[in-house]
Amino acid sequence: MDDILRISLIALLLTFTLAAYFLVIGVLFNDRVTKTRNAIRQMPARAFWLGLVNLLFFGVIAFVLLSVAENAGAFVKGILTIPALVILAIITGLLSSGLTGMVGQLGEKLFPDLSAWKQNFWAAVILCVACALPFVGWFLLLPYVCFVGIGATILGFFQRNA
Amino acid sequence: MKHLTDELLNEYLDHEAEDRAGIEEHLSTCADCASRLADLEALFAELDSLPEMPISRPVVIPLAKAYALPRWLTWTAAVQSAIALAAIIIAIPFLADLLPMIDTRSLVDLAVEAQSQWTGFLDSLSQVQMPSIPEIPIAEFSSLMMALAGVSVLWLLGNGLLLKNQMK
User: Fold this and answer.
1) Which residues of B touch A (CB under 8 A)?
2) Interface pTM, i.e. ipTM
3) Would you say A121 and A25 are in contact if contact means Cβ atoms under 8 Å apart?
4) Fewest CB atoms within 10 Å of the CB: A32, A52, A76, A147?
């Protein structure tokens, strides 16, 4: 019973933390997120495939670098770990912008009458809860959302300013 | 020669000046002050002669009316209060019998339990272990490079196809 309570508490905390994180990212990088949202709205399929290609490629490279670094000496370990961490940081950045755009897009469709920040907040909460669904959420919805988000962010880099 | 101030002249006209005799003595010798007094008297006479004008709308805001509760709410509230009071009076004997049977916990117990829950939560957070990275079987450098080159070509092809129209 205690474990269930703790896990629920952690999940609740993470959900609200993520919702706040997406709100802050949306405010700080408004232009980038707006372009990401445009890309999600206009070409979700292309964003998905682009995200899949890039996330798998850079993810595999970072994974290989970290694995090799585990078995290497101190000097080589440092040399291999730094680019791996840089790649992970870039992926995290792309993912943050992409998921924020995805949350904004969801909020606009789910709660058209609410104010912008309430739309984003509740959409983030709903997305977190949906992705917490065992198996379907973990292995289908979450990867889909991540791929589309990353792909849309990359597509956003090639968008012209309005 | 020191002239009378406007305040003194006003007080003289309002019959509130203390040294009335001194002011009159000064006025009898000073034509300038006598002239100012005459002007003031004429001004007050004109003000007095103005007709009374009725005010077109009330100046005082009817606060009581603005903040008054609607009539139905007042009545409803009064009736509800009366019913609630009657219910409490009726319920007191029953509650007096029932209350000792309820096992109430003190606030201290609740606080201690909440604290232990919070400590347990923090403990569980501190015990979370990051997944360790599995080791990759040591491959020859050349085959690793070939695999990397193949994956890179695939990545370039994929990006090239998907971003073909975007990069124009």
Assistant:
1) 117, 120-121, 124-125, 133-136, 138, 144, 148, 151-152, 154-155, 158-159, 162-163, 166-167
2) 0.71
3) no
4) A76
